[in-house]
């Protein structure tokens, strides 16, 4: 019985009607550090919900896409007409980095949720599907135009130069294809509610 | 008000049975594949890549035209209709169809694109061009029709009007 009592959390103790000062005394009796006591009273939101402020997310969108574009331009300028060298390894690498930035954090904006509805409420499902709709319209138009341009580049330009331009366009489309719904959703989603706002 | 007006319009519900819609979806994509295959086989003995390209583009446009004329302003064509004309359920169906369509289109486009570049790189003649164009036109057809095709495939048989 005593062992069970020792395992009860702050929430459980509150539910049993224990006053705050007694809960604090109980936590000290258990030998909890000040940090652990603080975390027990004010638990951090789960990683899943830590999507950051909208401003921060928008900066991330501009940063990742802008950074990719800048790198692509530099690599294109650095490449010579008879070789695709800096473009071929570095631009695909930049794609991987941008994808990791967006999908590496295990929030609901990430990859797992893009594959299913797990953990999403009705509002989030609607917002996600709306992001997909916008992404479809943007991606389909961009991909078809860029695809035709890449074919024209392959036809009309010398072998390596045409290939370099085609690969750049392809990599841009591949980046959009993998990240665009997430990025649109991250751009639109409002600031998360604070704990006080949620409880209110 | 607009939604109410549209919902009362009998044309809005003339979508046919789900079985029939599914057959039309399969027939449309299979017919296009057949035409593309015929053009590709024909082009093996011909150096004319321009007529082959035009044949596929015309077939593509024709299929899209038939598809959207047939569906017209029915609710199955929700992906093409403005949000103001749809009720809450159809709006969700529309967005969900776009999501599924994106999950299909993005990988298909990325794979087909690299295949077309490969065809041009390793078949630097008219045959390579025709294959590349066939892939672009195929993805164009998918991009233009897939959300509506998904709704047509999934929507149940319409309930009889009272």
Q: Could you explain the architecture of this structure?
A:
In chain A, 73% of the residues lie in helices and 0% in strands. Chain A has 200 residues and is mainly alpha-helical. The mean pLDDT of chain A is 84. The mean pLDDT of chain B is 84. Chain B is an all-alpha fold and 162 residues long. In chain B, helix 3 runs parallel beside helix 5. At the A-B interface, helix 8 and helix 9 of A face helix 4 and helix 5 of B.
Give the structural class of chain A. mainly alpha
Tally of DSSP helical segments of chain A = 10
Looking at how many chains there are and whether they match, the oligomeric state comes to heterodimer
Shape of chain B: elongated
Number of helical segments of chain B? 5
Q: Runs of chain B with pLDDT <50, length 5+?
A: none
Shape of chain A: elongated
SSE order of chain B in H/E notation? HHHHH
Class derived from helix and strand content of chain B? mainly alpha
Beta-strand portion of chain B reads: under 5%
Largest interface, by Cβ-Cβ below 8 angstroms: which chains and how many residues each? A-B, 28 and 28 residues
Helix content of chain A: over 70%
Structure keywords:
heterodimer; A: mainly alpha; 10 helices; B: mainly alpha; 5 helices
Gist?
Chain A has 10 helices and no strands. Chain A is mainly alpha-helical.
Helix and strand arrangement:
The complex is a heterodimer of chains A (200) and B (162).
Chain A lengths: L1 H5 L3 H6 L4 H10 L4 H8 L12 H25 L8 H17 L7 H5 L6 H35 L2 H30 L6 H5 L1
Chain B lengths: L1 H7 L9 H27 L4 H23 L16 H35 L3 H29 L8
Helix pairs in contact in B: 2-3, 2-5, 3-5, 4-5
């Amino acid at each position: 019985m005593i062992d069970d009592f020792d395992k009860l959390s702050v929430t459980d103790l509150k539910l049993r009607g224990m006053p705050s000062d007694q809960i604090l005394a109980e936590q000290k009796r258990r030998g909890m550090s000040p940090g652990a006591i603080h975390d027990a009273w004010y638990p951090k939101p789960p990683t899943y919900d830590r999507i950051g402020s909208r401003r921060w997310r928008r900066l991330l969108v501009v940063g990742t896409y802008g950074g990719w574009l800048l790198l692509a331009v530099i690599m294109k300028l650095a490449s010579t007409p008879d070789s695709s060298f800096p473009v071929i390894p570095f631009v695909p690498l930049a794609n991987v980095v941008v994808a990791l930035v967006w999908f590496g954090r295990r929030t609901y904006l990430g990859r797992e949720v893009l594959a299913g509805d797990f953990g999403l409420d009705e509002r989030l499902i609607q917002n996600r599907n709306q992001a997909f709709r916008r992404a479809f319209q943007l991606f389909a138009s961009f991909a078809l135009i860029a695809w035709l341009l890449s074919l024209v580049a392959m036809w009309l330009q010398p072998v390596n130069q045409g290939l370099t331009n085609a690969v750049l366009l392809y990599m841009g489309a591949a980046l959009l294809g993998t990240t665009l719904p997430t990025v649109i959703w991250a751009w639109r989603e409002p600031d998360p509610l604070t704990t006080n706002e949620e409880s209110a | 008000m607009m939604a109410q007006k549209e919902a009362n319009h009998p044309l809005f519900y003339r979508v046919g049975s789900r079985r029939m819609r599914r057959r039309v979806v399969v027939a449309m994509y299979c017919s296009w594949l057949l035409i593309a295959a015929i053009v590709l086989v024909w082009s093996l003995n011909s150096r004319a890549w321009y007529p082959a390209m035009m044949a596929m583009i015309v077939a593509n446009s024709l299929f899209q035209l038939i598809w959207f004329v047939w569906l017209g302003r029915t609710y199955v064509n929700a992906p093409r209709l403005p949000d103001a004309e749809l009720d809450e359920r159809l709006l969700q169906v529309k967005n969900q169809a776009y999501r599924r369509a994106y999950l299909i289109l993005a990988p298909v486009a990325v794979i087909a694109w690299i295949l077309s570049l490969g065809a041009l790189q390793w078949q630097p003649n008219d045959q390579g061009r025709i294959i590349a164009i066939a892939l672009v036109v195929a993805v164009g057809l998918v991009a233009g029709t897939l959300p509506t095709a998904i709704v047509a495939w999934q929507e149940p048989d319409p309930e009889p009007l009272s």
